[in-house]
Amino acid sequence: MEKIRKEFPVLRQSIYADTASYGLLYDDLIEWRQEIDLDFLLKGSRMRPNSLKIEEETRKTIANFFTCKTKNVALVSNFSTGLNIFLDGLAINSKVLLIEDDYPSLNWPFESRGFDISYIKITENLEETIEKAIQEQKINVLALSVVQWLNGIKINLDFLKRIKDNYPHVLIIGDGTQFLGTEKFNFENSAFDVLGTSAYKWLLAGYGCGFMMFKSYVEKSANVKFVGFTSAFNDVDNVDNIGFAKRFEPGHKSSLSFGSIKFSLDFMNQLGVDTIDKQIMKLSAFAKTEFERLDLLENIVVKRANHSSIFNIKGGDDLFKYLENNDVVCSQRNGGIRVSFHFYNTKEDIQQIVKLIERFIQR
Q: Which of 10, 11, 58, 87 has the most CB atoms in a 10 Å sphere around its CB?
């Protein structure tokens, strides 16, 4: 792990507990990105064929990494853009279920279009609340973040599969921005009909890139009308054969940004997805135990059996500034302090944060 940590310069300067805000870039990725920029500098338009090749290799790598059909992967600049394109094709009379205080880029696009929306609050019994709402309110669209951005509460994926089995008419849309890259995940075997993400957090690819994944039958549920030259693979004769996912790609894309997704997925494959999964689970369990010991967590987090590696701990401006002054990178969210741990974090990082909090409390 120490060899891997040397790839991330930020880790030499601070305890980085803020992947939920921005995933770290690393030396090998920056070197690759510089080579791509240099190629454009020296070759100009002659670089275009390689740029298109990078895009298609990225699409295939995403499909293989998350077990999705290649044709059903759309490369988008971010999740927000992908969701908005999709919702423009969704029937306006859809009865939608959302979670209160879910990520704004998930809830706002539904709200701005005037869908018939019901909301549920997050409790320790989140899954039971969702199922009850589906039963009683004739819900046909469920949209939620896999992991909640404010407190790290993670939806039970087995529960969603049961919902899909029992209520196959419910279209399940997920925001995976705080989830994808943290554990092994098979899209085809999941309950999600649509799952998208921005890639600048746990996928370590920087800003300006993300993707959407669709089940093959989803195009029957959304009449997406977005289109452009690159939707037809830059072929004017291909306008009548544009696939559903390509409608999310109407314009030119940055091979630098999207190639960064491929590079980081290859990097994570080399590390081992199972290794990453186990490391994050270990960090999550240890952090939860320590934060619970200090009474820093909400009861709804304490009472749930499984949790992500994102935590919102009790603390105001003074504690936040204290942590910052002691080189802990974190964020203020929802009246608390959000800390988050990726595979490049260690148990020692968490122990140091806990010791700092204990010293602050004892002052």
A: 58
Q: How many CB atoms lie within 10 A of CB 51?
A: 19
* Cα distances (angstroms) measured from residue 266 to each of 90, 263, 273: 34, 5, 10
3-class state of residue 172 by DSSP: strand
What is the per-residue DSSP string for 69-85? -GGGEEEES-HHHHHHH
For residue 267, give both structure tokens.
Answer: 């990097």
Least confident among 47-56, 135-144, 181-190: 47-56
HSE at residue 213, side-chain half, CA atoms within 13 A, is: 28
Q: Which two tokens stand for residue 184?
A: 């092994």
Beta carbons within 8 Å of 18's beta carbon, 6+ residues apart: 329, 330, 331, 338, 339, 340
pLDDT of 239 reads 84
Rounded-to-5 percentages of helix, strand, coil across the chain: 50, 15, 35
Q: Looking at residues 20-43, what average pLDDT do you find?
A: 96
Residue 318 CB contacts under 8 Å (≥ 6 apart), including other chains: 360
User: In the chain, where do the E strands start and end?
Assistant: 15-16, 73-76, 95-99, 116-120, 141-145, 171-175, 194-198, 210-214, 310-314, 328-329, 331-333, 336-340
For 26, half-sphere exposure in the C-beta direction (CA atoms, 13 angstrom radius) is: 23
pTM above 0.90, yes or no: yes
Q: What is the C-alpha to C-alpha distance for residues 263 and 33, in angstroms, rounded to an integer?
A: 10
Average pLDDT over residues 2-28: 95
Q: What is the mean pLDDT of residues 312-337?
A: 97
- Kindly state the DSSP code that residue 154 receives in the 8-state scheme: B
Other C-beta atoms lying within 10 Å of the C-beta of residue 167: 15
- How do residues 352-361 score in pLDDT, each as one tens digit? 999 999 999 9
pLDDT of residue 3: 83
Look-up: residue for tokens 């590390």? 271
What SS3 class is residue 119? strand
307 and 300 Cβ atoms separated by less than 8 Å? no
